[in-house]
Amino acid sequence: MSHNIPEKLGKYSVIEEIDRGSMGVVYLGHDPYIDRQVALKVAFLDELNDPESGERYRKMFFNEAHTAGLLTHPNVINIFDAGVDEDNCYIVMEYIEGGNTLKQYCTSDNLLPVNKVVEIIFKCANALDYAHRQGVVHRDIKPSNILITPEQDVKIGDFSIAHIHNADSTTTQMGGMMGSPRYMSPEQLREEHVTTQTDLYSLGIVMYELLTGRQAFPADNFSRLVNKILNDEVPPMSDFRSDLPEALNKIVFKAMERNVVDRYQMGLDLAADLTKAFDNLEQPKEDISAQEKFDAVKKLEFFTGFPDAEIWEILRASTWQDYGSDDDIIVEGDMDDCFYIIVNGDVQVMKGHSVIRTLQKGDCFGEMGYLAKTKRTASIKSRNSTSLMKINSTVISQVSLNCQVRFLKVFLRTLIHRLSATTEKVSQEL
User: Other CB atoms closer than 10 Å to residue 74's CB: what's the count?
Assistant: First the structure.
């Protein structure tokens, strides 16, 4: 598109250009309804109007919104919205202020500390494991698609060529050889069936570059690169750095195995090996499937009358949290804007060291914090193994309008019930 910056895209004001990529221009924008900054990715107009490739480009552009929109994970860039405004096709994404890609840390004179690299790859492996379990294969994992925030957190972005593996997907999938050649798996280059293991191979290449500052397969043209990826051995990392633990070398090379049978099967397997080698990482948990979560949530009284599609919407928009016995869930005095629904287990409401009451499966708590982001007036602890759905108002504003209205009705009913019960208790004590 031209360099003229549009003033608005749909309801979003455009502030300034912040980046240009292969798929479009990225602007800093403002969402007036939620009063937050967003990133607005706008498709190149010339590419959209190209008679030969315009249709494919348009599909790829909106493929990003569709696939990443299925995912809600702290290490995946959130997609909030997508639309068409006159000639402009745009996607609305989470804006990471001061974020940089990992590309700058892949040169030998600007390497990150080894522990930092391990932590980054650990988070990426967990995020990919989550995406893969939702049926999404990224297909273009490379340093420039992984963002690192000023707080040193990690966000995977650019799902424009991602592939959805599920039986009921009706969207047209992108076929043919796609991705960035330097990070492509052998099966991608051979245009064979691509699985979740392709992303883990690419992540292995990224890890190799972050640790050595060297390319795994240096080549000056495409055919030489393809030949090296399909046939050559990668030099051991010790050729470039003598201070790397052998365990790390094994993990990187297992991720980069040419044969999928020898490669990591799931991101969780890679994350678990990193945990064994580095004690400071939290043991990754085997996530229960989305279907199991749905089945558990559907039985709760809160969701009586909700159509299945809307339960799925809220499930995708909320965070699932598991606790052991006697874990802190809410601490008195903390600021919080979340509302919790107990899916399994019991929790105790405590004031100081006194237990005020016990809440069980199907009960809710945190209504006042959700409404007004106030300081918590009591603490909540799990009594036993407990699973919760954690929901905040920003997230609920992203689900469909019907779903928002239904959720608000039940939420207010719950709040009124809680307030009337409290009033009755107080009047009995007077």
Answer: 13
Model pTM score: 0.62
- Please identify which of the residues 31, 81, 140, 273 carries the catalytic annotation: 140
- For residue range 183-205, what is the model confidence (pLDDT) as tens digits? 888 888 888 877 888 999 999 99
Known active-site residue 243: no
Q: What is the CATH number of domain 100-277?
A: 1.10.510.10
Structure confidence by residue, pLDDT tens digits, 367-408: 877 777 778 888 999 988 899 999 877 777 777 888 889 999
| CA–CA separation, 164 and 340 (whole Å) | 30
* Mean pLDDT of the 35-50 span: 78
Region 8-94: CATH code: 3.30.200.20
Amino acid sitting at position 64: E
198 vs 260: CA distance, rounded Å: 8
Give the Cα separation of 179 and 155 in Å (integer): 19
Tokens of 309: 């599609």
Domain with CATH 2.60.120.10 in the chain: 290-429
* CATH architecture, domain 290-429: Sandwich (2.60)
